[in-house]
């Protein structure tokens, strides 16, 4: 009798633990934020600027070896410029990018990307759709993610006008001439997972 009760109890415990996580939920693979890197590049009529921004947290959701989702939070207060040396306006540019003219990091210290779907293109690459939130505004984005062992890479083109980042934008102001800053900027993401 004791064996039967024990067998039933074990079956219930293992049965519940096996069904507690369905395959649709997937497995969260935490991103190593210290080893990951996000590089940005913005363009203007007279050239470009580039720098880095830190990932605050993030994970990919995997169903076996297949990408199914993910969520990332970016620390907007960490925006840095890499193409200007100190004393050449580097600090001024970084301060301007953090100001309300651009990303308003005092009121919006983080940005967020939520992967809503991932369609396999081949063994290592996915066509990904997600929702990107910047300055409290959320818009859909589409990009390609490639995963190789413990690394994932992606390149996103972001239209800042959709997030009310207006400074120097031809979408909001006329006759800017060579002071125009293009709306699209690039994000190159290298994740350590």
TrEMBL record:
Q: Which residues form the Lipid/polyisoprenoid-binding YceI-like domain?
A: 28-192
Q: Which keywords does this chain's UniProt record carry?
A: Signal
Keyword match Cell membrane: no
Recorded hits in Gene3D superfamilies, A to Z, give: Lipid/polyisoprenoid-binding, YceI-like
State the source organism's domain of life.
Answer: Bacteria
Signal peptide location: 1-20
Report the SMART domains cross-referenced here. YceI
For this protein, the record's PANTHER family field holds: PROTEIN YCEI
Name of the molecule in the record: YceI family protein
Q: What does UniProt list as this organism's lineage?
A: Bacteria, Pseudomonadati, Bacteroidota, Flavobacteriia, Flavobacteriales
